[in-house]
Write a structure and sequence with these properties.
The structure holds 2 protein chains of 2 kinds. Chain A is an all-beta fold. Helix content of chain A is 0%, strand content 52%. Chain A contains no helices and 12 strands. In chain A, 38% of the residues are buried. The chains are: A mainly beta, B mainly beta.
Chain lengths: 112, 116
């Protein structure tokens, strides 16, 4: 069965420092991978996706993610965190029907 | 606003009552999805439509749940004889026909259901 894991429930980082939110996957077939962010009382917002091609994917709000096939990982990164980045982040796998299988989420807390 | 719209935003109902939620997708999107999200969990897939056809249903979708998309535009999700375990955020999303290209889905703000 396809699955996505986010090993950290919460990540704490100081504003201005780089951040990494981890995601690993276990899927058969093509690893179509996504990152979504969820702010309080708001819907999920698409950040970026990996379909094929370059392993480093750039997305919205300065975020990027690195696809690593050998480590089956798709970690989300940002060079310099902002307090406004504090939110719940979800990694997801999407199959041919675009049905998404989500990880359990990682709460990112950026301290000023 | 041309995003995905869900109504109502909040619903409180007594156990045993029926509830219906509505989702209006982005107008040119062929695919429409329903997910359920409980506290501390990621969204879980319930069902999806391609145009008016319901093509897949999760095992999570018990017989008390039914979804429709009669004209291939808006969709409704009905829960009959609600139970306290149905309390959750119900999310709707839509996408174009991405197929193997992995087109991203756009989500509405969700309907929060509380069964008392």
């Amino acid at each position: 069965a396809q699955s996505v894991a986010q090993p950290e429930d919460q990540v704490n980082v100081a504003e201005g420092n780089p951040l990494t939110v981890k995601c690993t996957y276990s899927v058969s077939g093509n690893p179509y991978l996504f990152w979504y962010v969820q702010y309080p009382n708001r819907g999920l917002q698409f950040l970026l996706k990996y379909i094929t091609g370059d392993n480093l994917v750039k997305g919205s709000y300065g975020f990027e993610a690195e696809f690593n096939k050998s480590q089956t990982s798709f970690h989300l990164k940002k060079p310099s965190a902002l307090v406004s980045d504090s939110a719940l982040y979800f990694c997801a796998w999407g199959g041919a029907t675009n049905k998404l299988i989500f990880g359990t989420g990682t709460l990112l807390a950026v301290q000023p | 606003d041309t995003g995905v719209s869900q109504n109502p935003r909040h619903k409180i109902t007594k156990r045993g009552q029926n509830v219906t939620f509505r989702c209006d997708p982005i107008s040119e999107h062929n695919r429409l999805y329903w997910y359920r999200q409980t506290l501390g969990q990621g969204p879980e897939f319930l069902t999806y439509f391609q145009n008016e056809a319901q093509l897949e249903k999760s095992r999570l979708l018990s017989d008390r749940f039914s979804a429709e998309r009669p004209k291939g535009s808006f969709s409704t999700l009905e829960i009959q004889r609600t139970e306290q375990g149905d309390s959750a955020m119900y999310l709707c999303a839509s996408s174009t026909l991405g197929g193997w290209t992995g087109t991203e889905a756009f989500f509405g703000q969700g309907t929060r259901l509380t069964v008392v």
